[in-house]
Amino acid sequence: MAKIELAYVKAYKDRHGRMRYYYRRKGLPTVALSGEPGQAEFMASYAAADARAPRPNAVLAGEAAKARIQPRSINALIIEYYRTTEFKELADSTKRAYRGQLDRFRTIHGSKSSLSIETHHLEAIFIGMGETPEAAVNLRKRLRRVFRLAVRLGWRSTNPVVETEITRKRDRGIKGWSEGEIRQFEEYWAAGTRERLALALCLYTGQRRSDVVRMGPQHVKDGRISVAQQKTAVRLNIRLHPNLTAEIANHQFGQDHLAYLTTAKGAAFTVEGFGNWFRDACAAAGLKGKSPHGLRKSAGRRLAESGCSEKQIAAILGHTSLGEVARYTREANQTGLADDAMDMLEKAETRTASV
After folding, report:
1. What average pLDDT does range 319-327 have in this prediction?
2. Which residue has the higher pLDDT, 87 or 34?
3. Residue 51's CB: how many other CB atoms inside 10 A?
4. Terminal-to-terminal C-alpha distance of the chain
5. Fewest CB atoms within 10 Å of the CB: 101, 140, 169, 275?
6. pLDDT per position as a tens digit, 250-278
7. CA-CA distance, 149 to 143, in Å (whole number)?
8. Is-contact 259 197, C-beta < 8 A?
9. Closest by alpha carbon to 309, among 293, 294, 330?
């Protein structure tokens, strides 16, 4: 991959040999950037960090700039989307990610008319993003909602995004942890360490890192942990797994201690800070490229392999769409059916041999 140079990005190698990237700009707080340059995750975090800077000439920088926005342009449409209740009710982290995706699109296409853009125009844009298919998928999702708003506003009669198609890579996304990788982490980090507690919280609640960093003793009552998901606002009450209960018991928490997981100095983790710290713990255990979100996927896999239904899995993970959890049950069902088929084959072969 060609070297990518971005303004205000500073890089250095940490003590584990891992490259770290930060957005550093005078007058703004330094922000840790996730992923690697060129990856969709990295570009989204970079765009969110860069969007904080004052932009006198940007379309959202003030009333004078707003006056230059052409009526019913793509700029105008996206601004209308930012004003919707749908967008305003998103979690702050989700808003930043969505703005990063849409504002990059606006930078290039904002002055164009939202009335004349057609499916083949958008198809060409998505095809041009072939090197970053996940970024293309995410942009398509955002634009589908934006142009759905155009239909509701009466600007258009049809949504041009609906008929577009994007081919995803088969190995896309973050992979779950295997049972061997979970054992490897547990063998390296002993019970009673912060690292082991972090693994248990992620694996036995199945929650995102943004929820795990906020969990504390005050959320546990009558053997259940109460979680209000930051991303979806869904409230979950999950019975504590015995392994998680045992790991929590290995730690001492004061009455004023509001988080199970804290930094070495006792401060609360930020979401990005926790992710970086946990990836370092994985690397130290010889598990490079592993993440807290991979444990959420492993939790879903374990639930499916235990025979849980899609609704039961959703009750733990908090997914609002059963389609999001269907892959877990499909994979588990395939394994079970394949085992049954091989058992039948072996029994048939035994009967034939005995004749």
Report:
1. 80
2. 87
3. 15
4. 62
5. 169
6. 998 866 678 999 998 888 899 889 999 99
7. 10
8. no
9. 330
Please name the helix (run of DSSP H) or strand (run of DSSP E) that holds residue 282, with its range, or none.
helix 271-284
What domains can you pick out in the chain, each with its CATH number? 9-152 (1.10.150), 179-334 (1.10.443.10)
H helices, E strands: number in the chain: 15, 6
> Could you tell me the pTM of the whole model?
0.59
Give yes or no for residue 15 having a pLDDT over 70: yes
Question: Which of 305, 316, 111 lies closest to 227 in space, CA to CA?
Answer: 316
Closest to 39 (Cα-Cα) out of 158, 138, 183, 156: 138
* Neighbouring residues of 341: CB distance < 8 A, sequence distance ≥ 6: none
CA distance 26 to 11: 16
pLDDT at site 317: 92
Q: What angle do CA 279, 292, 251 make, to 5 degrees?
A: 90
